[in-house]
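Title: Prediction job returns without error message
Component: structure pipeline
Severity: low
Priority: P3
Assignee: unassigned

Description:
Job completed but the reporter wants confirmation the result is attached to the right record. Sequence as submitted:
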Amino acid sequence: MRLSGSGLGCPTWPECHGAFIQTELDTHGAIEYGNRLLTGVVGVGAIAAFLAAFLRRPFRRDLAVIGALMPLGVIAQAVLGGLSVLYGLAPGWVMAHFLLSMVILAGAVALWWRAHHEPDPQPTSDRGVVLATRGLLGLAAWVLFLGTLSTASGPHPGSSGTGEVVSRLHFKGGETLTWMIHWHGRFSTFFGLCAVAAWFYARRHEATAQTRRALTAVCLLLAAQGVVGGVQYELGLPAEIVWLHVVLATCTWLAVNWGVQAAGRLAPLPAAELADDGRLARGAGPAV
C-alpha cells in the first residue's frame, strides 16, 4: 500500500470518501480500502484464535492470555492505521503502525508454539543458548526500529500516487537518509555476526533440533537480506526491492521469535553458583 503510493487512497477514516462501503474506487483507493477490509479478516482470525485458546480443555492460562492479546492488538492496529491517515502519513504514526504489526506477529508465534507444546517443567536448552536467542530478539527489534527510521527518511512516503505532500524525517538535513541507512547497515551486520555466533554456540552445546533450525533460518534470511539491502541501495531504493526487503525483514523477525520459543525457558542458576554470588556480595571470595 505504501510503496504503491496509496497510503491516502482513502483520505478519511473510518469511512472512505464519505462512506463505509465502497464499490467504485480508483486503483489507489481500492488498495487502501482493501487494506482496511483485510484488517477485518485478520480481526476475525484473531478472535477465533482467542476463542480456541479460551475454550481449550484442559484450560491453559498462558494460551488464554496470549490469545486475548491478539484481537486487542488488531484493534490497536486499526486505530493506528486510522491515525496514520488522519495525520497525513506522518512518519511517527506509520512507524508505530508497522512496529505494532511485528509485536502482534511475535504474539502469534508464541501462541502457535505453545499450543503445539505442553509446558515442560524442565528447561530444554543450555542457559547460554536461551540467553543467545533472547539477545538476538532484542537486536532484531532494534534493527527493525532503525529500518523504520530509514524508511521514514526515504523516498516512499506513501502518497506518490495521490499527490499529497508528506513530511519526512530530516534531523540530519539532506543527509538524514544516508546517515540512517549507514547506521541501519552497521547494526544489521552486527546482528548477522551475532546470529552466526549463536548458531555455532547452539550446535556446540547440543541445542534442540528446532532451535538449530530456527537459527539456521535466521542466518540464511539475514544473508539474503544483506544482498537485497545492498542492491536496493545501489539502485536508488526502487519500490519493488524495498518491498522484498520488508518481506525478508518480517520473515527474519518470525524466525528469531521461533528460535526464542524453541530454546525454551531459562534454567535457574546452579546452587553452587548462587552460593558464590552470595559470598561475593558479602565481600568474600568464591568457593574453591
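Comment from assignee: result matches the submitted record. The chain has eight helices and no strands.
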